[in-house]
Structures are given as structure tokens and as C-alpha cells.
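Q: C-alpha cells for this one, please.
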Amino acid sequence: MSIHTFRYPKTFKLESGKRIKHLEIAYHTYGALNDRKDNVIWVCHALTANSDVFEWWPGLFGDTDFFNPQDYFIVCANIIGSPYGSTNPLSMNPVTGQPYYLSFPQFSIRDLVAVHSLLADHLGIEQIALAIGGSLGGQQALEWAIADPNRIANLVLVATNAVHSPWGIAFNESQRLAIGADRTFYANAPNGGAKGLKAARSIALLSYRGYHAYGATQREASNEKQDDFRASSYQHYQGEKLVKRFNAYSYWLLTKTMDSHNVGRKRASIEDALRQVKANTLVIGISTDLLFPTDEQKYLADHIPGATYAEINSFYGHDGFLMETKHIAEKISGFLACHKPQNTAIYQQMDQQIA
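A: Here is the predicted structure, written as C-alpha cells:
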């Protein structure tokens, strides 16, 4: 496994018409491209993840996991705006010589996909055997399969949608309200908005899990408590944990990027856009997902030609897409088996793993 930096030599034009100079994208690769160049697995990461997929999706990706570097050439790119090596609001603006902060231009899911495509060209990847993503990552993978349908042979979409819902946008706006209520957010400092980011993460967690998950994991052992509850401590802990590894400016922009997701924009319709997908497609829903309810995944499967829908019963809500890796691997294995004639190379590698 290794991390690299792709430096785009030209000025990158965003969907909005705004431009970024000296764009840099951090990315990880695992394994090697085979002679036929047909063993590429491309991972699109979610909101606050990084390009080290072995770190945040273990059980599905790892040296001995379903997708492993012995059989596949695995690529995961850190998205624009994310503070894990790619150009982001804390990066130096070449025009001013100062960090961007709030002047960083807003970008869309389509901009993230455009950069994936540039990186794939840079790596000499013409065909992607399988593209996969969950949540914001699934939005990217779907948009890519629509924008460049001949490049992706197989597509796995987990806990994602065709257009970000009013419910999801409302959650994101509530988080941005929390960040904006922190006056330090407007101070243009690396730790600006830290308290607001902590509160935003607390709000987000409520959409990632759910009533029953909190009831099981944060319930008090005693009936006598009147304060200092486990659930309160958990919210503080998770908020502080994110503050230590992220920044409020990136979070603000990336939630807006998620809100921008609509495959029907500047196309005939959402349904028509989904019909452009040529990849063999597996759509996976999480039964208890509050943020991306299963109706959204069923809609994808109903409108992507030949798509297969699978549902995982999970205790963890939306976070199930990160935690139910054994079940996700089983669903992917069965899906690829059904498309064996079209997936000879990838299926042979899977056969070897099972044997």
C-alpha cells in the first residue's frame, strides 16, 4: 500500500465555472495493475474518510479480505476539499498566498467525479472492473457510471441515492447552522469553528445511528443517574474525535457538496440519467438507515437497467455500510457470480479466494 499525490498541471474548472489552480489529489493504491488491466477496483470514500480504504473499510478491503492487493489493483482518491492530502480550504491559495478558508470555491459531486476521471487517465486505467462507494462515496460512483458509462464494468452502490433528499439536506443545514453559530468560524484560522464542528458531529451522529442503536449501546446500568449520562459522554467524545482530525471549513463545504447531488441536473430527468448506466449494478440498502432510507436504494435498482437490489438487516443504521462488511462481501460475491460470463477475470480471482 502506498500514498501518492496527483498534481493536475492545468487550471481545474469546476461545474460552477470557478477555477482551482495547482489542484492536488492524494490517493492510495494497493496491489498492481495486471497485464490485461482488468483488475481495477475503484473506491469512492464518504464524507470524512480518507484515501486509505484499508483503514476505514476493514473486513471488505485488506490484505486478507474480500478485496485484497494480491488479486486486485485497488485505488482510492481523497476528494477535493478533504484535509487528507488533497487541495482543501486550509491549502494555500496561489492567488493570495494565504489559506483559502471560506473563499474556497464550492464544488459538486460532478467535480469530484471529473477529478477521478483525470486520475484514472493519469494511472493509465481505461477500464474499471468494479467501482464501489457508500453514502457520499456512492453518490460519486453513481455519477461516474452515468457520466462515463463505458469505463465501469461493475458498480456497487451502498446506502446512497440518486438525489440528496430534503431530509438529508435539512440534517446538513442543521450542522452548518451549528458551525456558523461558532464565531471563530469566521476568523480564518486553522482551528476556526472547532466548537461548532463538535456540535455538528453530534447532530450527524443522530442520523448515522438511531433510537434502537443508542438504546442498546448507551443505556445506563443504574436507575439512579440524574446527570453525566453515557449518551451525553458519547456525543462529546465523538465530536472531539472529529475536531482532532478534520476542520470546520472542509466539513461545511463537503456537506454542501453532498446537498448538490442530483443526477438529473442538466439532463432530461433523474430516471433518464439512471438509464444511462451500463455497468452491472448491485444496490445495497441498510434496513435501519434513517439518513438514506431503503426506498432510495430501491428507486435506484428500479431505474438502473438490470440492477440488483439487496438489503442488509443491521443494528447500526446508516453506519451499517461501514460495519456490516461480512454481509456486504457476501452480497457482492453473489452478485458477481450471477454475472460470471461478463466478469471472467474478477470472478476467477474471487473463485481463488473462496477455494
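A few notes: The domain at 168-258 is CATH 1.10.1740.110 (Rna Polymerase Sigma Factor; Chain: A). The longest strand covers residues 24-30.
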